[in-house]
Amino acid sequence: MAQQAFVTLATNDSYARGAMVLGKSLRNHKTSKKLVVLIGPHVSDQARAVLHKIFDEVRLVNVLDSGDTAHLAMMKRPDLGVTFTKLHCWTLTHYSKCVFMDADTLVVSNIDELFDREERSAAPDPGWPDCFNSGVFMFRPSNETYGKLLQYCTEHGSFDGGDQGVLNGFFSDWATADINKHLPFIYNMSSIAIYTYLPAFKQYGANAKVVHFLGQMKPWSYTYNPTQRGVRGDAQASSQPGLLLQWWALYSAEVVPMLIREYGDQPFNSGCEVRPKHTEQENNHPLVSSAERKQRWEQGQADYMGIDSFDNIQKKLDVFLK
């Protein structure tokens, strides 16, 4: 039986970290499918190394850009041009079926059942439900389809300047042809919908399997305080911080240590974590016995901003390894 895969895309290091969290969330929920990430040339060597440890296949692709500044300006999202690169996923013909997931999605439950669906299966976009949201969709890789998509781009462009406009234009009968290809919203629950239809979120949100952080503000756009386990940033985020906290908890616990190992002694800016400078009192760590420190760790009370910070742990590892 031909292999099947979840596929995502990262064109820079910020989205690469999103892909790392997505890949980890799929692994943690015991997917039986392969994991594939398409990356652009701007992804750093360190990020690529971490991606290789999480994904079964890391494929370098050329970045396609719509160059459609007019439509992108209407959406105030000039960054969406490179999402045309997503079209490369149709070239993964060594897989029989794939589910594409944007790097700003987070899996909170096993979703392998999506592979029982057919091509063009997707959830409606919350902004215009007759269009499907291209953040999560089932597809069958095909070089023929890939060629037709590129031809469509050349002849018609995209009504929104990004991949979603292209895919909805190309698969124009999605809204009316087959209701079975309309995925339940729980497979692509937009974080924006939480604020626009809060009663529905309270009623159905607990059943969500995939959270999609739509909009310009991504999880890595905020800052995280590991001591208080809180997210700081846009005021909108603070009204429903639970989903962002899930993303940050996974990123901090499972992705950041991998990045630290890859960067070693090289200083690096994660782009999505700001560690406040220690005060003099914090730098003068009180003496704590090994037994008491172990007990605090076991109770989830590690001093992440002080003696148990990532920097101090790295120093200890360096001394030990040398």
TrEMBL record:
Question: Which controlled-vocabulary keywords does the entry list?
Answer: Cytoplasm, Glycogen biosynthesis, Glycoprotein, Manganese, Metal-binding, Transferase
| The protein's name in its UniProt record | glycogenin glucosyltransferase
- GO terms of molecular function: glycogenin glucosyltransferase activity; metal ion binding
Q: Where is this region: Disordered?
A: 271-291
**Primary location:** cytoplasm
* Family of the protein in this entry: Belongs to the glycosyltransferase 8 family. Glycogenin subfamily.
Which PANTHER family does this entry report, sorted A to Z?
A: GLYCOGENIN SUBFAMILY MEMBER
What SUPFAM superfamilies does this protein's entry cite? Nucleotide-diphospho-sugar transferases
Organism equals Sinocyclocheilus rhinocerous
Q: Name the Enzyme Commission number(s) assigned to this protein.
A: 2.4.1.186
Compositionally biased spans, kind Basic and acidic residues: 274-283
Compartments in which it is found: Cytoplasm
Enumerate the cofactors the protein uses. Mn(2+)
Q: Which Pfam families match?
A: Glyco_transf_8
Q: Does the keyword Ribonucleoprotein apply?
A: no
This molecule's function is given as: Glycogenin participates in the glycogen biosynthetic process along with glycogen synthase and glycogen branching enzyme. It catalyzes the formation of a short alpha (1,4)-glucosyl chain covalently attached via a glucose 1-O-tyrosyl linkage to internal tyrosine residues and these chains act as primers for the elongation reaction catalyzed by glycogen synthase.
- The primary gene name is LOC107713835
Transmembrane ranges, per UniProt, are: none
Q: Which InterPro entries match?
A: Glyco_trans_8 (IPR002495), GNT1/Glycosyltrans_8 (IPR050587), Nucleotide-diphossugar_trans (IPR029044)
- Which biological process annotations from GO are given for this protein? glycogen biosynthetic process
Q: What is the lineage of its organism?
A: Eukaryota, Metazoa, Chordata, Craniata, Vertebrata
